[in-house]
Specification:
The chain has about 425 residues and is α/β, with parallel strands linked by helices. The chain has helices spanning about 5-15, 35-45, 65-75, 90-100, 120-130, 145-155, 175-185, 205-215, 230-240, 260-270, 285-295, 315-325, 345-355, 370-385, 400-405; strands at about 25, 55, 80-85, 110, 135-140, 165, 195, 220-225, 250, 275-280, 305, 335, 360-365, 390. It has one domain: Leucine-rich repeat, LRR (right-handed beta-alpha superhelix) (Alpha-Beta Horseshoe), CATH 3.80.10.10. The chain is built from 15 helices and 14 strands. Strands 1-2-3-4-5-6-7-8-9-10-11-12-13-14 form a 14-stranded parallel β-sheet, with no helix packed on it. Helix 4 (about 90-100) runs parallel beside helix 5, helix 5 (about 120-130) packs parallel to helix 6 (about 145-155) and helix 10 packs parallel to helix 11 (about 285-295). It starts with 6 loop residues before the first helix and ends in a 12-residue tail after the last helix. About 50% of the residues are buried.
């Protein structure tokens, strides 16, 4: 039997959703259903009473399709998760969804990444958040949101009681614009996860964020990667960590924190007892920065994950980290990918493994560890009873080193053809 391909055929198929009483999840990612398919889904959702999760990522849906879905959300009482990333709903589509959110009482997750919603779309969503009482997660990655959009969200957070996660990744928001938003964090808000990755945060923004973190009591996860904060900005944030008692995850990768930034964070970690995950990948901290962080690890008892990829810490920095690991009792994951670590650094880590009882994951990819380093790690693994993952991809280990490591069941498992 021959079937005609395209959105109209799909529209016919989706009619079944109007009466279906069992389907709870529908994934239509990358299917090019277009506006016609979205309109058919909208009609079905008006009467469907079981569908809870709908993924329409990458489906060439424009504002008309989004408007149809918005109309459906005004009456639908079961859909909790809606993903519309990588479409073209634009500001009109976002405005339609915003209107729906003012009355909808079930949607908890809405993802609109890469949809060109712009300022007007963001304003509409911000207005909706003033009255909406169910939405917990809003993803607005890469949507060209600027001052007016951020101001709308800042105002919404004055009264909103449910939004926990706000993702503004990749909106290239300028420095002065961001400072308007930080005022919202000084007020009591349910916001627990905030993503400002790939914007244009500078040192002044970091200072404003630092002030907010001194009083904020809800934010637990903060993504600030790939901004322009540099050493002085990181130093300002570090000061707030000495006081803040709620933040558990902080992503600062690719911010040019340098040695001074790492030293400031070291001072904060000696006092902070809440942070569990710290990402400092690609930050030019060097061996001195690593040494400073190592000193903090000797005292800190809460940090469980430390990412230090691509920081040129070398053997000297690794020696300091190895010494810290001998006594540290909290770190479970250490990422040292791409740090020019040679056999001496591997030796220090191997020695640490003989006494460390908490580390479970050690990433050493893309370094310069040879057979002697492999042997040192092997010696540590003979005694260690906690490490479960060791990644040595792209080093200088030959067959000789590999054979040594294969004596440890953790690393090499026999296979039968």
């Amino acid at each position: 039997m021959n079937y005609t391909k395209g959105p109209f055929t799909l529209a016919e198929a989706l009619k079944a959703l109007k009466t279906n009483s069992t389907l709870a999840t529908l994934n239509l990612l990358s299917n090019s259903i277009g506006d016609n398919g979205a309109q058919a889904l909208g009609e079905a959702l008006k009467t469907n009473s079981t569908l809870a999760t709908l993924d329409l990522t990458g489906n060439s849906i424009g504002d008309y399709g989004a408007q149809a879905l918005g109309e459906a959300l005004k009456t639908n009482s079961t859909l909790a998760t809606l993903t519309l990333e990588l479409n073209s709903i634009g500001e009109n589509g976002a405005q339609a969804l915003g209107e729906a959110l003012k009355t909808n009482s079930t949607l908890a997750y809405l993802s609109l990444g890469s949809n060109r919603i712009g300022e007007n779309g963001a304003q509409a969503l911000g207005e909706a958040l003033k009255t909406n009482s169910t939405l917990a997660t809003l993803n607005l990655q890469s949507n060209s949101i600027r001052y007016k959009g951020l101001l709308a969200f800042s105002e919404a957070l004055r009264t909103n009681k449910t939004l926990v996660t706000l993702d503004l990744h990749g909106n290239l928001i300028q420095s002065k614009v961001l400072q308007v938003f930080y005022e919202a964090l000084n007020r009591k808000t349910p916001l627990g996860i905030l993503d400002l990755t790939c914007n244009m945060m500078e040192k002044n923004d970091a200072q404003a964020m630092s002030e907010a973190l001194r009083t904020n009591s809800t934010l637990k996860t903060l993504f600030l990667a790939a901004n322009l904060m540099e050493e002085s900005g990181i130093q300002a944030l570090a000061e707030s960590l000495k006081i803040n008692s709620t933040l558990t995850t902080l992503d600062l990768q690719n911010n040019s924190s340098g040695v001074c930034g790492a030293q400031a964070l070291s001072g904060a970690l000696k006092m902070n007892s809440f942070l569990t995950v710290l990402d400092l990948c690609h930050n030019l901290i060097g061996e001195n920065g690593a040494q400073a962080l190592a000193e903090a690890l000797k005292i800190n008892s809460t940090l469980t994950t430390l990412y230090l990829q691509d920081n040129s810490i070398g053997d000297s920095g690794t020696l300091a980290l190895g010494e810290a690991l001998r006594t540290n009792s909290s770190l479970t994951t250490l990422d040292l990918w791409g740090n020019s670590i040679g056999d001496n650094g591997a030796w220090a880590l191997g020695e640490a493994l003989t006494t460390n009882i908490t580390l479970t994951t050690l990433y050493l990819q893309n370094n310069s560890i040879g057979d002697n380093g492999a042997h040192a790690l092997y010696q540590g693994l003979q005694i260690n009873s906690t490490l479960t993952t060791l990644d040595l991809w792209h080093n200088l280990i030959t067959v000789k080193g590999a054979m040594i490591l294969c004596n440890v069941s953790l690393i090499c498992h026999s296979s039968r053809g």
